[in-house]
Structures are given as C-alpha cells and as structure tokens.
Amino acid sequence: MPQLAAAAIQIEPLQLAPALACGVMYAVRARRLAAHGRPVASWRQACFYSGLGLIAATLVSPLGGLADELFWAHMAEHLLLADLGALLFVLGLTGPVLQPLLRTAALGWLRHLAHPVPAFGLWAADLFFWHLVGPHETAVRNDVAHALQHMLFVGLGINMWMALLGPLPKPAWFGNFAKLLYIVVVRLTSTVLANVFVWSNDAFFGVYERGERTHGISPHTDQVVAGSIMMVEGSILTLCLFCWLFLRSASEGQERQELLDLAAAGGVALDERRAARAVAAGRGGELRRRIENDDTR
Questions:
Q1: Which of 160, 215, 216, 226 is nearest to 189 (CA)?
Q2: Cα dist. 239→5, 229, 244, 245, 251 in Å?
Q3: What digits encode the pLDDT tens for the residues 113-154?
Q4: If you count Cβ atoms within 10 Å of the first and of the last residue's Cβ in the chain, which end, N or C, has fewer?
Q5: CB under 8 Å, gap of 24 or more: what pairs does 126-130 form?
Q6: What kind and span of H or E run contains 190?
Q7: Does residue 297 fall inside a structural domain?
Q8: Does residue 266 fall inside a structural domain?
Q9: Cα 135 from Cα 157, distance rounded (Å)
Q10: CA 107 to CA 283: how far, in whole Å?
C-alpha cells in the first residue's frame, strides 16, 4: 500500500468553510448557555470539537490529496468524514444547543428529517448514489461536485446518527430493540456495498487509473482494499454501538426503577410507561425533581 506522505497536503476552502462556521456557532452558543447557568458538558464539547477536528484534519491531510489518486484512500477519507466525524459531531449536541436553530421558521422543519425512517432512507440513497460510476467520477474530477459530495456525506451522516444518538425527541416505538435493528440495518447497508467492491471481478472506476499506475497498485486490488476498509471500519463501529446500546439499556433500566421506587416511597402515582418514556428521552432528572416536589400531573 502506498505511503500517505507521497501525497501533497491540500487546503480546500470550499470544504473547510462549513466546518469552521459550525465550530464558531457552537462556541458562541456554548458560551451563552454557560453564562446563563446551563453549560454544555465538557465531554460533549470535547466530542464536538474532536469531530470537527477530525473532519478538518482529514480534508487537509495527505490522505485528502491521495483520495484523488486511489479509491481506497477516497473510501478511508469518506469513512472518517461521514461515519466517525459525523458521529462525534452528534455526540456534542444537546437540546439547548440546537434550540435557536430549530426555532427558526426556515430551519425548524429539519427536525422531521431526524426521524429514523427518513434519516436512514436519505443516508442510504446518498451512499449508493455517490458510488455510482458517473457521480463518483464527477466528484473526483470536479472540485465543486467533490465539495457537494462531502457536504452531503457529512450532513446526512449527522442526520443518520441524530436519529439514534441525537437530543431530539424520538418516536414512541423507537425503543432499545428498535435502536438495535436500526444499527443492524445501517451497518448491513454499508456492508452490502463493501461486498460489491470486494467480490466484483471488475474495477468500476477508471478515474483512478493514473494514480494506481503511479503507486503501483492494480485497479482491482485498489477496489478490494477499499471495500475491505469499509468492512473493517463498519465491524468495529457496530461492535462499539452494540456495547453502547447494552450499557444504555442497563442504565435506563436502573434509572427507571429508581424513579418508580422514589414515587412509591412518596405516595406519588407514576405509570411505568411514563417513567420509561422520560428516561428514554433523557428527562429522568426532570421527572425525579417533579416527584420530589409531588408535581407529576
């Protein structure tokens, strides 16, 4: 496999500008919330800035330059941007952080796209579209199309993770078992595409021919390596998400039982389903305070 140092570092303002703008807006909002006694948790801020840093570093690193020459590098770049960078970005978000955005008439409707069904559908359609020969090769050859490709990958990746990990309200049916199925379907979708690249007898993209000759790798091997990278990254991420879901389920069960016990001890009527909904929505602390103040109506 070629050395990344062989590719030049590239600065592409068209792709870096959205990340910079998001970072500035997040910093301003976080400072304002802290000034009003509602600080964003340090770990969330660390996740957000790590996600933006990973996106920016990927775009300006030698990997970004090599992505125009080799398919496996382009695949690795997209996974860092749209999977890991987008995931860290979402982990940094909270309801209060998003509140000004969602209150605006022009952008408030975007919350509906974070419903699990459209979130998955849009993400999957975008994933397959940009791996069709025509759109993919256009993105490699044209800077504007490449910037659009990356913005859609990151934006719809963020939206896909928002449905699972974001702070927006979830549908009543989207419990832990539904979340498990969501993870499986998302990873299965990318695995299907990865298998197409690994097991196909022919290389699909001719746009990398010059780079493949320069780096001494055949088009078919380049494609197999790209698909393999996609499989390995997806497997590791899936395992991490399963562990997260298991720990979350255990934590929610414990918190739900504590709320029920607290209500019973105080003679407050509390339905188990109501406690479960509050915990799943991250509002267990608020319900606890209302129980303690005997204000659960």
A1: 160
A2: 31, 16, 9, 10, 18
A3: 999 999 999 999 999 999 999 999 999 999 889 989 999 999
A4: C
A5: 126/152, 126/153, 126/156, 127/153, 127/189, 127/190, 127/193, 128/193
A6: helix 176-199
A7: no
A8: yes
A9: 18
A10: 25
